[in-house]
User: Fold ATP-binding cassette domain-containing protein from Nocardia bovistercoris.
Amino acid sequence: MNAISPPAGDTGASVVRAMGLSSGYAGTPAVQDIDLAVHAGEVVVLLGANGAGKSTTLLTLAGELTPMAGSVEVLGLGARRGLDYRARRGLGYLTEGRCVFMELTGWENLRLGRGPAERALEFFPELEPHLAKRAGLLSGGQQQMLALGRILAARPRLVLADELSLGLAPIIVRRLLAVLRAAADGGTAVVLVEQHVHQALGIADRGYVLHRGRVVMSGSGAELRARASEIAAHYISGEA
Assistant:
């Protein structure tokens, strides 16, 4: 498995920076007063129970939601620039679920990406024997490898990954997370929403814990692993 080459022109500056960010739907905030930063080469994980605001945060960083308050800058672009602009600047966004075209073959899915199809196989060589099949016939793990490989083939500056491991076996989760870590080691910034807390913190440089739309804990991956019981409390409904 090879790491992605560092993005051209990367200086290690913040790829994502949000200050006092509030965002939500139909005038109702789902996240409030979020401060976060992500630098090139970092994996930053967002943790929290369902409904904590993790996916809303990613949608706002992607440019799909416009902030209600505060400021956000992603890849040098302000809040008025949407997902299409951010994608052209080097954003790869893996949404929750399976981001593949089920009726197309694996090869066809890869060729729809911005990078060479063969480059995806540098990360997931085990896919090659299955790429002539329709994506809908692949296992859930293979579909997720296909989607992530297509994104990484383009050498993105930033990857946003929402629930990468949803419904997958632990061995597949470890494989996917290792590839994301390799991408970060090559210079890509990664923001990861993940329910496998221990595994995610094992590859993360830093993390934020959200509860009811607010950041309630933050720290390095090692610091947050040492506070696992406190993190678990925020997954229990009704606890602050």
